[in-house]
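Dear Dr. H.,

I hope your travels went smoothly. While you were away I took the liberty of generating a structure for the chain from your last submission, since the lab meeting agenda had it listed for discussion. I wanted you to have the full record in hand beforehand rather than looking at slides cold. The sequence, exactly as received, is reproduced here:
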Amino acid sequence: MARSSSRTRTRSTARPRAAAAAPVNPRTVFLASLGAAVLAGRQAERLAADAAEVPQRLRAGADAAVDTARSEVKKLAKSARSRIAPLKREADKLGAQIGAARVQGVAEAAKRLNPLLTRVGLPKIVAKAPAKRAAKAAVKRPVAKKAVKARRRA
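The corresponding predicted structure, in token form, is as follows:
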């Protein structure tokens, strides 16, 4: 059997040489400055477009914050009303009880002290009847007025 030998050959390739620096002359300086101006203009356009969007984003964020605050205030107001209503009813009951007790106390004092006050010559204590609550007046809603035809001047 014959041996097969596989040899790899290495080829030498020329290294890429660094590009020679272009000579500096007025033309290359002008072209470089022209390229820099174009790039600066493009960047300025991008920045201007981004800056134009900032107020819109801020306005949208502020509107969203206001909407959130409104809904939160509505929830809190509803919660406060539901908590206050029973307390108000209880306070009204207690107020009515206190008023009745006051009237009863004045009547009792008048009953006991009036004979004594008349002997001394002082005016009598007048017991007043408990004040009745006024019924709530019906809320009148504004009615739309009918349109009046304009009169012609002769």
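Two observations you may find useful: Residues 9 and 15 are 18 Å apart (CA to CA). The chain has one helix and no strands.

With kind regards,
E. W.
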